Structures are given as structure tokens and as C-alpha cells.
Amino acid sequence: MKKIIIIGGGIAGLAAAYRIQRKISEGANLECILLEGSDQFGGKISTEKSDGFVIERGPDSFISQKPAAMQLCKQLGLEDRLTGTNPNSPKTFVYTGGKLVTMPDGLSLMIPTKFLPFALTSLFSLPGKIRMALDLLIPRKDGDSDESLASFVRRRMGEEALSKMAEPMLAGIYASDPEKMSIGSTFPMFVETERKYRSLILGMLARKKAMLINAGKRPHTSHSLFMTLKDGLGEMVDAVIKKSPNIQFKSGAKVAALEKKKDGWNAKLGNGSECQADAIILATPGSITAKIIKPIAPDSAELLDRIHYVSTATVTLGYKKEGFSHSLDGFGFVVPKAEGRSILACTWTSSKFPHRAPEGYVMLRCYLGGALQEEIAEKDAETLERLVRNDLQEIMGIKETPIFCKVFKNNKSNVQYHVNHSERIDSIMEDLKNFPGLFLAGSAYRGIGIPDCIQNGNQAAESAFDFLNSKSHVSI
Ligand SMILES: Cc1cc2nc3c(=O)[nH]c(=O)nc-3n(C[C@H](O)[C@H](O)[C@H](O)COP(=O)(O)OP(=O)(O)OC[C@H]3O[C@@H](n4cnc5c(N)ncnc54)[C@H](O)[C@@H]3O)c2cc1C
User: Fold this and answer.
1) pLDDT in tens, 133-169
2) Site to substitute for ligand 1 among 41, 44, 269, most atoms within 8 A of C-beta
3) CA distance 449 to 447
4) What domains are there in the chain, each with its CATH number?
């Protein structure tokens, strides 16, 4: 019987495992083992439940426009567990000039698509608005070389759009430095829009119009842009394991290196044991994958090592609702770096996902660190709590003492897609063609979000399956 080893039990490795389980259920004669280095599965996805609060350590939702995560939840029988954001309080704020300013209606990923709210907002100065509107006239960029998010936004919409929107909102999603992050690998739709329509504003308006026309033709979907599971994303992790009876899930199984054998692969574990297989799916973070493959593929390892990771921290606070001094009428706010605060963003979790806090309580989650303020995320938990509570008092006027404060440190956890990332990944994939039976999956390559990682894990499983089929004389 052919055997596949998956190394890494984050969502990419788990998605690969579940895809292989489905092949086995359909009759494939395969053995599969997933080796996870830590003592729990899920990787960055980790949910804690306590006294009716659902607390996410890392990701708290996923985008529904990319279908892989929704599809996986449905396949796992979690359809009834899916839930969207609260439709009653969708406002988001930007902290600027010492106050919270509502993001104007019609702003689609920093691009204004409604004239009046944009004209009236106090978020941008008049010269800033005029500069953004110049996007309507500016010619498209020559050539198709990659550039940074900052260079792209500065060129099309000016400095103010960069500092008040693109840096806190767009680079913030990636905990990244807009001067270094690749526009092509993080927001390819902007590059495509410029290529196709020249102006981002005209392109967004054309897309909105097409969506309105198509909305009448497509079946109605009630999904919000961001979806999650009622008891947290950890539900997805538990369900994959429960619904994959033919996969062996082993935790505490840290792989140190890979060895190429005449007829397959040997995974050497940190505890000295070894595990053989016909195909390997490596679903570990890029920096770890580099170490594991260094003995066999030093060139790819060197390129992988150049993929940078930064530290972030999340601080979640629960409060009694009675007497709480803020209305929490919205999803939360982002903070541009120029404001000089410690927190990058704050989600009003109990407003955005009301089921995450029990009746009579509210919950907030603050995000710190990232490429622009990494030193903050590396401070101790006590300091992080103090910095957050100080910021919340000065930004939102919250003086109350929380009933709990949970600090989670995500040390070197957020992968950074720097300019020309995609070229580096192409070179790695080209080099790895010399190692048939070895497949890579995960957030280091072609998408950081949960749907991208699931899609990537699915693809790695399909490629491994096809590879084994092509080696066998009979189909497996
Ligand atoms: C703080 C934070 C917030 C985020 N928020 C969101 C969000 O809201 N929405 C969204 O879509 N995305 C979000 N992301 C991104 C997303 O969560 C990740 O990109 C994704 O979960 C990564 O999955 P993965 O399987 O590629 O890697 P990981 O989750 O890193 O999994 C890799 C696994 O490999 C294991 N491993 C490491 N070394 C070894 C070894 N030697 N041997 C065996 N196993 C090993 C690790 O223990 C881990 O379990 C967030 C990320 C972070 C850090």
C-alpha cells in the first residue's frame, strides 16, 4: 500500500489530510499519517472557550469570497455552525488626529465608490481627497514588474490614502510594512484593475455595476464577507480529525529532516525515530520547511529562508456590559502608525460576532506588533496588558477593569510577502521538480488567508495522489 506523510497539522496540512481521507473513502488504497510537531493540531488556528466566551488566539474569521474554506466547512458537515458578521453594526473606524472617525460608506478596500460620503468625510483633508480623485486621470504603469503596496498606492492615490487607509487597513491585514510588501502577491486585484481599467476608481465602479447585474442572475447568498464558526475556528480543526478515521494524526512528532531514498522518502523525527513514505506533503512554516529540506535541496532551502516572519500579539479583554462606557456601535477600529499608539487595531468582537460573548458581557480584541512595531509584540504579557488598557482608555475612554485579559504572543508567526515574493516561490517550485514525490503547502507560498491555505493543502493532496497513481501500475 502506498503511503503519504503530511508534516505539519495547521489548516493546510489538515485540509490535505481530509482530501486524502475523501480519496480513501472513495476506494483509494492509501495509508496516510500526519505528523504535528506541537502537542495540538490547528497551527495558527487555536480557540479557547471559557465561561461562555469564545476567544481566538490567532485568526477569528475567513473571507467567504474565496470558496475553499466555505466548501471545507460544508464537506465536514459544519454548514449549520457557520455564522457571519453582525449586519446591524457594520461601521469601521480609523483613529486619526486623536479621535475615531467612521470610514466613509462606499469605500471599497480604500477605493472610493460613492461620491457624497467621500466628499463629506473628515477622514481625509481636501488636498488628500483631490489627490485620491486624480486616480481618474493618472495613466497606468508601464511593464508588469512587482512593486510595494506603498509605491502602488502613492502612485495612484497619494500619501494620505497610504497613511490613513492602505497602511492600517491593507498592510495591517498582513501585519506588514507597506514599503516592503508585494502588491502583486497580496492584493493582485488592484494590479489587475489598473491593467484592465487604468483607474482604480473606474475599475471598482465597473465591478460594482457588473456585480449588481449578476446579482439578479445568481442564486441569492446570505453570506457576509467574513465568516466564522459559532464556537470558533477550532471547530474546523476538530471536525477534520473526527471525520478522517483513516488518517493517523500524531502530535508531538517534530520532523527534523528529510532524506531521499531510492524508492521514496524518510522523515527523521527529532526524537530519533524515522518514518518512511512514497510521498511527502510539507505543510510547515517556510522557515521550518527550509531547515527540513536543507540536506536534500539547499537551493530551495536558501530561498525559503529569505521568506520573513514577524511577531504579533493579540490581547482579548472581557467586560460586564452594565455600566460599560462605550456603545461599541461598529466592528472596531484601525490605528495608523503615525498616531504613535501601541495597538494596530481593535475588534469589537461582541458587536462583530455577537455569539462570542455571553449575555450581559462585551469583549474586545486588540492586535499589536507586526513589521512596523515588532518590538511591542515581543514585550511580556503584563506590559502588553498595560499598553492595551492605556490605549483603550485614551482612544475609547474605557476606564473599567476587565473581568479577564488574555494575552497571546504569536512569535515570528506572520509570514511576509515582500516584493518579488511570487518569483521566489516560482524558483522554489521549479527546483523542487528535481524531487518527485515532495510537495509543499501552507501560508508561505501563494496566499496567507485560511481559504488560500485550504486550497493549497487540497492541491498538494491532489498532486501527491496523482504522483502515486502515475508511479503505480494499477490505480491506487
Ligand atoms: C495572529 C494571526 C491572525 C490571523 N488572522 C487571520 C484571519 O482572521 N483570517 C485568515 O484567513 N487568516 C488569518 N491569519 C493567517 C492564517 O491564520 C494562517 O496563514 C494559516 O492559519 C496558516 O496555516 P498553515 O497550515 O499554513 O500554517 P500553520 O498554522 O503555521 O501550521 C503549521 C504547523 O506545522 C507545525 N510544525 C512546525 N514545525 C514542525 C515540525 N518540525 N514537524 C512537524 N510539525 C511542525 C506547527 O506546529 C503547526 O501546527 C492570521 C494569522 C495570525 C498569526
Assistant:
1) 999 999 999 999 999 999 999 999 999 999 999 999 9
2) 44
3) 6
4) 2-40+240-307+418-471 (3.50.50.60), 47-88+309-416 (3.90.660.20), 105-138+145-217 (1.10.3110.10)
The C-alpha cell at 109 is: 478596500
Q: Residue 218: its pLDDT value, please?
A: 60
Q: Which residues contact 249 (CB under 8 A, 6 or more apart)?
A: 9, 17, 34, 36, 41, 241
Query: Cα(first)–Cα(last) distance of the chain, in Å?
Result: 8
Q: Are 180 and 215 in contact (CB under 8 A)?
A: no
Q: Is the distance from CB of 221 to CB of 168 less than 8 angstroms?
A: no
CA-based nearest residue to 195, from 139, 133, 134, 157? 139
| Ligand 1 pocket, mutate which of 268, 282, 284, 312 (most atoms under 8 A from CB) | 284
Q: What integer is the mean pLDDT of 92-114?
A: 88
Nearest to 319 by CA among 382, 398, 403: 403
Helix or strand (DSSP H, E) at 415 = strand 404-416
Residue 233: is its pLDDT beyond 70?
yes
Phi, psi dihedrals of residue 290, rounded to the nearest 5°: -55, -45
What pLDDT, on the 0 to 100 scale, is given for residue 473? 57
Closest ligand 1 atom to Cα of 57:
1
Eight-class DSSP state of 135: G
Distance CA 344, CA 170 (A): 12
Residue type, 294: K
Grid cell digits, residue 185: 502577491
116: CA distance to ligand 1 center in Å?
41
Residue 164 burial (CB count, 10 A) = 25
